[in-house]
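Example 3.
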Amino acid sequence: MSTMSAPMAESSGVWSLPYRGKVGMASLIFAESAIFTIFVVAYLFYMGKSLTGPTPREVLETPIFYTICLLSSSLTIHFAGKFLERGKRGAFLTLWLLTIVLGGLFMYGTGQEWHRLIYEHGLTISTNLFGTTYYSLVGLHAFHVTVGLLMLGIVLIFGLAGRVGVEQSRRVDVLSLYWHFVDAVWVVVFTVVYIVGR
Amino acid sequence: MSPDAKAIQTAEAAGQPWVQTLHEWVTTVDHKRLGILYILYALVFLIIAGLEATIIRIQLMRPHNDFVSPQVFNRMFTMHGTTMIFFVAIPVLFGFANYLVPLMIGARDMAFPRLNAFSFWLTALGGFLLYFSFVGGSGLYGAGNAPDVGWWAYAPLTSRAFSPGHSSDYWTVALLVSGFGSIGTAINLIATIISMRCPGMTLSRMPLFAWLNLIMAGMVILAISPLTAAQVMLTVDRYLGGHFFDTQAGGSATLWMHFFWIFGHPEVYVLVIPAFAFVSEIIPVFSRKPIFGYPVMVGATACIGFLSLSVWAHHMFTIGMNSYANSFFAITTFAVGIPTGIKIFNWLGTMWGGRIQFKTPMLFCIAFLFQFLIAGLTGIMLGAAPFNWQLSGSYFVVAHFHYVIVGGILFALFAAFYYWYPKITGRMFNETLGKLHFWLFLIGFHLTFDLMHIPGVLGMPRRIYTYEPGRGWDTLNFLVSIGAFVQGIATLVFVANLVVSYFKGAKAGNDPWDAWTLEWSTSSPPPVYNFASVPTVASRRPLWDLKHPEDPDSRYE
């Protein structure tokens, strides 16, 4: 015999456990938070310790418009998920596309800022401590946005092919959890880099 | 054994081409096979890192020895430390967790089987990269060399100026890659334990093994991630000209120390908590009593996990922190002793009044209790900042942490090997050889690591490649080396036992130890699908309930 099923099934009530995708993503978010924490600590620790210029006060401009883009994409993805749950695929796809556009706009903003810093102010990752910590922290976040956009794009392609329905709703929710995390991290990065750091 | 499993096994035995067998193992996503791969992989590196330790001990056997050059000596202790922590200890513990957790909680597999395989192969690639540094460390310059910056790789040793070539980069990338593997496995373990338990397996009925591995996985997530971040920073420094740890541009070498030890200290608990998990399963079975103080054990472990995140700077007392920091980290370090003490008393409480069977796994567990206690006591000594100022960086520290890792973790691991060997292979090990291994290893261990404390107190610094005669270190170092050889021989006995018993051992049957957790309810080795029907449990000891329907545990819990 291969197994004995243990006796005394208590079987009163349904046995339900949290969805593994959500638990896995939550764990990943904890791990990512720890990584971001270290980069944030390094940024704060090295604030004002650069031996040469340029300093954040001289060159940084607060990216308010692009921040609004990214943060509102959290709303659009949330409602996209809600629509999918209720089986409204058209509304889901529209909001999903809007999320990607908003995320893409944010990335464009970051790219533009970097371009300006590099070509107008000569600030690169090796210029001074500010450059090292700034590009690492903002770059790490931008990397996460990029990964998020790729995954959102995959869902969009499947969605346009008509393969994303109510039954995928739980999986889509896992992805939006990640996207919310990326947005939440931006709140921290924004506060540290553009408010505290100047 | 079910007909299916039998069919699968006879098909395997009946000479399918070896290429196909290999292909099955390489592409497997089965948690049991991946568990075995992790364990075998770790055993290979155990032998490699053990040889490196032997080279270190031969070099230190007598003063002014020139068995290896100082450069090679530096590489040996760096590779020994890095390999043992990242490519022996973590994989072997993950291997056992992988193999046992789904079986113990009545699941078909891990939550994410493909992530599981991916994580294993990342870890495997990490180990390969680390050792490839012997060939590729100097890039195109030919001879090549391995990392020689010590396993904690303090800045500025890792800067381009002091570490030319690529040896440090192999070290960084190896740890980065295997770190991603570890995080993947940790996520998998958490999702498995939270979401894949069989009906009736509430959190309060989970075997302690699953509980402790859940806490371990949580700590991996919080501890390995900072190391990953720090390695990224180091790479930015080395390749993109960043200044994180570059003191000449205002960077801080101390920051690296903080980042490293924020990983480094919890890492010790990442390794020791699975050891606790083994002991918590084995001692009750061989004492014929349920574990004493189950909820307290869980609470104490969570407490250790929590406290261990706030003790890291006790590795840094000698760098000159202010007195508040010194006091804080000394106090938190002492505080870890409280939940650890609770656990030791709980294990003793489990044994107390039990009908103890002194089988090989139990012998290793009992030795674990004594040795882990002593290791903890020297840990408290080193946690006192003034005492630490005297002995930090000496062989006393080396003796202390080897007491934890060998005397504690490795002994528990040997116990686990013997205890679950019948389940994994379906064969019993040779008890006589097991006892021989135990006594030889015990003698070798104490000869090496008891005596190693003394040259430390006498002022012998760690990581020196040789020393002057006449300082009172000579005889001690000689005996320490002899002890290391005894341990080496004992390990050969262990490996021989594993290999010979695999072919010649008696059939184990489902449940050779008359144990109580779910893995013993299925055949040995378990079929691919683990359980033919999903088990349902009503207490912490489902097999006790099954064997004693007249007096089940579920009546009392």
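Chain B has a mean pLDDT of 93. Residues 70-104 of chain B form the longest helix (35 residues).
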